[in-house]
Specification:
6-stranded mixed β-sheet, 15 strands, alpha/beta, 8 helices, single chain, binds adenosine-5'-triphosphate, binds magnesium ion
């Protein structure tokens, strides 16, 4: 059985659990339990504080885990990375009080900066040749300037609304983060095989999230040109419509590309275009 560590409760929890569920892995979870086993896949789930996940995976207490890159790199364990998962995207940024003048990172020379990410911040300051005093605090970083602890902060930002409500302005992006899957480097053969199976499912889910199933009607003389716009997995499926001279064309398209080619599809005479979500996609 493979043991995965995920965050117990916080900003990674829901997406981590959803990914496991979308892989068709069922389990019974209760907010009180710290450990659960899947009923249909050889997976045991541990629910932990996110900060503890890289250490547990490095030590082999858990075989694999899901954690933010910000935490992983801060703890110096990026070598555990298997792959990026594309959710919980956020950035680590420097911010100063709104009214303060700021023109470049050099303005932070000799200043006090409060953060929960001293290593990531130090790396960034070193890269820019700036010397500053880093004050490591574990939470509520954004109030540090208003209580006189620091002139600047370095904290996680997604929309920026927390900064604004604390009278701060984002001035430098220090690190970009997303959730990553990590694994212990000494998994035995059996566990490696379970991980492979899990990754196969993860990839099918990820591919499906980007892909859409597209159905449209085209005049027969345009089937060729529309097919070139919609190559699909191999080639589109073409079926005759009950109305003479028309075909129905089925294909798979990346949602981002869809908006780019929609005009061309219409120019080529496509009608009745349906775009439908795909649940899983194996190629
Ligand atoms: P824990 O109690 O497990 O230690 P925490 O308070 O340290 O939790 P959270 O705030 O739940 O951590 O954030 C977990 C991770 O989610 C962060 O390390 C980061 O990778 C990501 N994250 C943080 N804030 C956001 C956000 N606003 N949007 C998206 N992802 C975020
Ligand atoms: Mg934490």
């Amino acid at each position: 059985m493979l043991r995965i560590a995920i965050q117990k409760s916080g900003r990674l929890s829901d997406d981590s659990l959803n990914l496991i569920r979308e892989c068709g892995i069922s389990f019974i979870s209760s907010s009180l339990k710290l450990k659960t086993e899947s009923t249909n896949f050889p997976l045991e789930i541990l629910f932990l504080r996110d900060d503890d996940i890289p250490g547990y995976v490095a030590d082999g207490v858990a075989d694999i885990g899901i954690v933010g890159e910000n935490v992983l790199v801060e703890e110096g364990k990026e070598e555990l990375t298997v792959e990026k998962l594309g959710f919980s995207k956020c950035r680590l940024s420097l911010a100063v009080p709104k009214a303060d003048e700021y023109s470049s990172i050099a303005d932070l020379e000799g200043k006090n900066i409060a953060t929960s990410y001293p290593n990531l911040l130090q790396t960034y300051l070193d890269k820019h040749g700036v010397k500053a005093q880093i004050h490591t605090i574990s939470g509520s970083v954004e109030i540090a300037p208003s209580i006189g602890l620091a002139e600047a902060i370095c904290d996680i930002v997604s929309s920026g609304s927390t900064l604004i409500s604390n009278g701060l302005r984002e001035v430098e992006r220090v690190f970009s983060s997303q959730a990553v899957l990590i694994a212990n480097s000494n998994l035995n053969e059996e566990k490696k095989q379970i991980l492979e199976k899990l990754l196969f499912r993860v990839h099918a889910v990820q591919r499906a999230q980007r892909a859409k199933y597209i159905v449209l009607n085209v005049p027969n003389d345009q089937v060729e040109s529309v097919s070139q716009l919609l190559p699909g997995i191999k080639a589109p499926t073409v079926m005759p419509l009950a109305e003479e001279g028309w075909s129905s064309l089925h294909s798979v398209v990346n949602e981002d590309d869809f908006w780019e080619i929609i005009e061309k599809l219409k120019e080529a005479g496509a009608q009745g275009i349906l775009v439908v979500p795909i649940e899983k996609m194996i190629v």
